Each structure stands twice: as structure tokens, then as C-alpha cells.
Amino acid sequence: MEINKQKFIQKLKEGIEVLNISYSSEQLEQLWEYYLFFLEENKKYNMSTITEPEEVIKKHFLDSLVILNQVDFEDRKRWLDIGTGAGFPGMVLKLFLPGDSFYLLDSSAKKVNFLNQLIYKLGLKGIDATHGRAEDLAKLEEWRGSFDYVCSRAVASLNVLLEYAVPFLKVGGLAYFYKGPEYQAEITEARSALETLGAEIKESIELDVPGLEAERYLIIVEKNDPTDNKYPRRAGIPKKRPL
């Protein structure tokens, strides 16, 4: 597969402009570097089946960036990306929010290893990739209730995801969940989880990712009250017995 850098950057640029997001040539270069490194390491680690340049641009890069129009840029924020995989969306968002601190969490050691190499390669500060499970880390004092924003893409159904994410948020913090067309059914099933964890759905928005035919929605959840210490339950239980 031959990849033309100029073509790649041009495609990226067009997509980012359609999203109405400001960018620098340095950010385009970083995404190009990201793509090349991802391609090379993916042969070893098999992190994603999506590797064609145009597919990566729309399904990974633009799909990650689409939420920037919903984010408040005032003050520096502390982000957590749960189940980050190869860094989507957290790593991509960091490149466009350089002043914010990002924590990328994944239960796969090989993906975390890839991300830490990429962070080093791109010379990024204020970003850290951690190997672990949300259920365990949410019990630690320095993680619990300490994030302004939590994001997650393609990790679990909403009722499960809420139990992973909400305990990490500060009261007043927001979670951004990327969802497909079944999002309304997921919202209905998550009513009890929202109530139990002290959160509510602030908004659900249809997203328009340039070139992507699949329907994309963003569910924004706000944390209103501290979460009871018994949540999240131990590893594996949220998925087995959703709230």
C-alpha cells in the first residue's frame, strides 16, 4: 500500500476544515507521524483492522476530533480516555488540546506500550498511557473524582460505561460517549445506572463526520452528585450485571 504524504495531509486538512476546527501545519504533521507509526506497529500488535489511509483519516482521526465543537476551551482540563485502544479519541484530542492533561487507559499492555512509544516519539508533555482496568483505578484516591472530562469510544453499552466512567469525574464534570444509531435504546436501559451513580444525560447530539456514512451520536453525561464508594464494583461485574 503506497501512501502519499501530500495526499494524506490534504485529505486530513479538508476533513478538519469541514469540521470547522482550527489547526496548524504542526498538528497535520503530527497526525501523519502518528499514522506511519500506527501502521508499522499495527503489524506487530494488530490494534485495528482499519489501516487504509482514507479510512484511518475518517474513522479514527476525524471521528475522534468531531467532539471538539462540543468542548469548552476555557481553563485547562484534565481528561481520561477509557479503553483508548490505539489512542482514539484521547491521543488525537491531545494534539489539538495541547494545554490539557490527558490520561489514556487501556487493559491491553501492548496498546499502552504503543501509546507510550508514540508519546515519546512525538515529544508530548502532559499525557500518560496507563495499563489497567477502570474498575480498579477508580478506587484510587488520586484518580477518583479528579477528572473534568471522561471520553470513551466503542467500549461498552451505556449502562456499563457509566459505571466505569462516572466515579472518575468531579461533580460538575462531563463524560463524552461516542455511540452508534442504537443510542436511544442504550439511554433507556441506562436510567437506573444514571440515578445510582449520581449523573444525568445533559445532551445527545448527532455528529457529522466528513466522509463517514455510519451514523454517529455523542451522549454528554453530567455528574451531579458524588458517586457511592461501592461503585464501580469489582472488575468484570459491571459488564456481567449492569446497573
TrEMBL record:
PANTHER family: S-ADENOSYL-L-METHIONINE-DEPENDENT METHYLTRANSFERASES SUPERFAMILY PROTEIN
Name of this chain's protein: Ribosomal RNA small subunit methyltransferase G
HAMAP family: 16SrRNA_methyltr_G
Organism of derivation: Halanaerobium saccharolyticum
Binding-site residues, S-adenosyl-L-methionine: 83, 88, 106-108, 134-135, 153
Keyword S-adenosyl-L-methionine set for record: yes
Annotated function: Specifically methylates the N7 position of a guanine in 16S rRNA.
Keyword S-adenosyl-L-methionine (UniProt): yes
